[in-house]
């Protein structure tokens, strides 16, 4: 159960973020419209205002539904599937008069390089800006969120609805929460700031006390890992189980993990599978992949290779790039394929797709295929290229294979 640890820290020394809470002059070269809300005129870009607002709503929804490491892939995919340029969208968010509502998204773009270069300093400052918007949350972090978490919200095309008082308040509440959550992650990983797991835990604990179910899930992970607090598997299980029963999909995934591994509770692989399946059906992508694993291994459910392949494909199509390597594996070995036919060409096709989507494991697989001529022609240059890409992305196997391969060539 790897910690994705992610809270309520306000820096006293941040000096560059105050302007994000001030009104700016709108760009004159963009076609604009205005909307009056409680005697305040909000000027927005007519062409992209709906998209930018819906992008933030989508960001909120996925942040609640998914494990944090996959969210940046989904944001990129959402922008590209809408046939928009990530760089242009990012720049328009910076110019938008509503940007003070979206500082957590801006920080997220800086942290993961969405439409801009990676800049952890600016990411940190944007997250700080979000936490400094201390809106009174009378409906609770996970109460008003229901306004935006409905799947029908993204189909709303009326700008007056998207900028209505209840929506604007919800943007602020969610922006504040996500900013704190992401800030905590920076402390956990030591991004820009000094690594501090204790501070991470305390910030996360604060969010949980404020009523955030999503933060409660990650707090449970901290207890499991002993991150910033003494390791306590029973406490971890209690927090995760509570979040799952409140409906959080990441909590359901982790509850399945606890039952299948016997963490803080007696092992029950069948019940664990049911929690994975429930989370997958709700839209959690990691759970879709884990259900595929269970069907392949026959863990908690009868072995079913066709269903395994089906769930691997589903999780890959939804945005889990590494899942394409499992699809490739199935085609390479005839697992769940029509007539159990092995197909090296299809296997390489899916390995390549995983590699191009950024999976270090997929990049390593493509490098090996190029070395062995598996589903493609033997190609030294491409083998070195993909193994090196995998190495740069942190795959230690690729580093070892690259060294061995180069020695062979000498």
TrEMBL record:
<dbReference type="Pfam" id="PF08238">
    <property type="entry name" value="Sel1"/>
</dbReference>
<dbReference type="InterPro" id="IPR011990">
    <property type="entry name" value="TPR-like_helical_dom_sf"/>
</dbReference>
<dbReference type="InterPro" id="IPR050767">
    <property type="entry name" value="Sel1_AlgK"/>
</dbReference>
<protein>
    <recommendedName>
        <fullName>HCP-like protein</fullName>
    </recommendedName>
</protein>
<dbReference type="InterPro" id="IPR006597">
    <property type="entry name" value="Sel1-like"/>
</dbReference>
<comment type="similarity">
    <text>Belongs to the sel-1 family.</text>
</comment>
